[in-house]
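thread: overnight batch results

M.L. [08:02]
morning all. the overnight job finished for the chain we discussed friday. pasting input first so we're all looking at the same thing
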Amino acid sequence: MKGFLKFLGTVAAVFSAVIGALAVFDKLTQKNRIKDGYLVCEVPDADKEE
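M.L. [08:03]
and the structure it wrote out:
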């Protein structure tokens, strides 16, 4: 039983390390992420109706 619990602990630690590494990698690579949840852009002829 101790071996199984050690195995589960190892798997959980490896999983956590992988998720943490992916989060750090995503944070470093996504410099152009949209901030504040929306994208502000200018659309020509936006005030005209079709």
